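Worked example

This section walks through a single chain of length 91. The input is the sequence exactly as stored; nothing has been trimmed or padded.
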Amino acid sequence: MAELKSIVQQYTIGDYGKVNVKLKEVLESRGITRNRLKELTGVKYDVIDRYYKNENISLVDIDAFSKFCFVLDCGMGDLLEYVLPENMEKE
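Given that input, the structure is written out below as C-alpha coordinates.
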Protein backbone atom coordinates (compact mmCIF):
# COMPACT_ATOMS: atom_id res chain seq x y z
CA MET A 1 0.00 0.00 0.00
CA ALA A 2 1.30 3.42 -0.94
CA GLU A 3 2.23 5.79 1.86
CA LEU A 4 -0.37 8.50 2.49
CA LYS A 5 0.56 12.08 1.67
CA SER A 6 -0.20 14.99 3.97
CA ILE A 7 -1.28 18.32 2.51
CA VAL A 8 -1.04 20.19 5.82
CA GLN A 9 1.57 22.99 5.72
CA GLN A 10 3.16 21.40 2.71
CA TYR A 11 1.09 22.39 -0.26
CA THR A 12 -0.68 25.49 -1.49
CA ILE A 13 -3.98 25.56 -3.38
CA GLY A 14 -3.61 23.72 -6.67
CA ASP A 15 -0.45 21.84 -5.70
CA TYR A 16 -2.54 18.79 -4.86
CA GLY A 17 -4.53 18.73 -8.09
CA LYS A 18 -8.14 19.60 -8.73
CA VAL A 19 -11.54 18.12 -9.48
CA ASN A 20 -13.09 18.92 -12.85
CA VAL A 21 -16.84 18.84 -13.38
CA LYS A 22 -17.66 17.12 -16.68
CA LEU A 23 -21.36 18.01 -16.81
CA LYS A 24 -20.94 19.78 -20.16
CA GLU A 25 -19.47 16.70 -21.82
CA VAL A 26 -22.17 14.39 -20.44
CA LEU A 27 -25.01 16.71 -21.47
CA GLU A 28 -23.59 17.22 -24.95
CA SER A 29 -23.09 13.48 -25.48
CA ARG A 30 -26.77 12.93 -24.63
CA GLY A 31 -28.12 15.94 -26.53
CA ILE A 32 -29.60 17.48 -23.38
CA THR A 33 -29.63 21.23 -22.73
CA ARG A 34 -29.11 22.95 -19.41
CA ASN A 35 -32.73 24.11 -19.51
CA ARG A 36 -33.95 20.54 -20.01
CA LEU A 37 -31.78 19.34 -17.12
CA LYS A 38 -33.30 22.09 -14.97
CA GLU A 39 -36.80 20.90 -15.90
CA LEU A 40 -35.95 17.26 -15.16
CA THR A 41 -34.14 17.83 -11.85
CA GLY A 42 -35.56 21.01 -10.35
CA VAL A 43 -32.01 22.29 -9.81
CA LYS A 44 -31.71 26.04 -10.42
CA TYR A 45 -30.35 27.04 -13.82
CA ASP A 46 -27.54 29.18 -12.35
CA VAL A 47 -26.30 26.17 -10.35
CA ILE A 48 -26.37 23.93 -13.43
CA ASP A 49 -24.67 26.66 -15.48
CA ARG A 50 -21.83 27.01 -12.99
CA TYR A 51 -21.19 23.25 -13.08
CA TYR A 52 -21.60 23.20 -16.86
CA LYS A 53 -18.94 25.90 -17.27
CA ASN A 54 -16.75 24.30 -14.57
CA GLU A 55 -16.00 27.77 -13.17
CA ASN A 56 -15.93 29.22 -9.66
CA ILE A 57 -16.70 25.91 -7.97
CA SER A 58 -15.38 25.43 -4.46
CA LEU A 59 -18.03 22.98 -3.24
CA VAL A 60 -20.34 20.53 -4.97
CA ASP A 61 -23.94 19.93 -3.98
CA ILE A 62 -24.17 16.15 -3.53
CA ASP A 63 -27.97 16.29 -3.73
CA ALA A 64 -27.82 18.09 -7.10
CA PHE A 65 -25.25 15.60 -8.39
CA SER A 66 -27.42 12.71 -7.19
CA LYS A 67 -30.28 14.17 -9.22
CA PHE A 68 -27.99 14.57 -12.24
CA CYS A 69 -26.85 10.94 -11.94
CA PHE A 70 -30.44 9.69 -11.63
CA VAL A 71 -31.77 11.69 -14.60
CA LEU A 72 -28.70 11.14 -16.82
CA ASP A 73 -28.34 7.46 -15.80
CA CYS A 74 -24.68 7.85 -14.99
CA GLY A 75 -22.30 7.58 -12.06
CA MET A 76 -20.54 10.27 -10.07
CA GLY A 77 -17.31 9.33 -11.85
CA ASP A 78 -18.91 10.32 -15.14
CA LEU A 79 -19.50 13.84 -13.80
CA LEU A 80 -16.42 14.44 -11.63
CA GLU A 81 -12.77 13.82 -12.46
CA TYR A 82 -9.71 14.22 -10.24
CA VAL A 83 -6.74 15.69 -12.10
CA LEU A 84 -3.24 15.39 -10.66
CA PRO A 85 -1.12 18.52 -10.49
CA GLU A 86 1.07 19.01 -13.54
CA ASN A 87 4.26 18.26 -11.64
CA MET A 88 3.10 14.85 -10.36
CA GLU A 89 2.70 11.50 -12.04
CA LYS A 90 0.14 8.88 -11.05
CA GLU A 91 1.73 6.17 -8.94
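What to look for: The longest helix spans residues 62-72.
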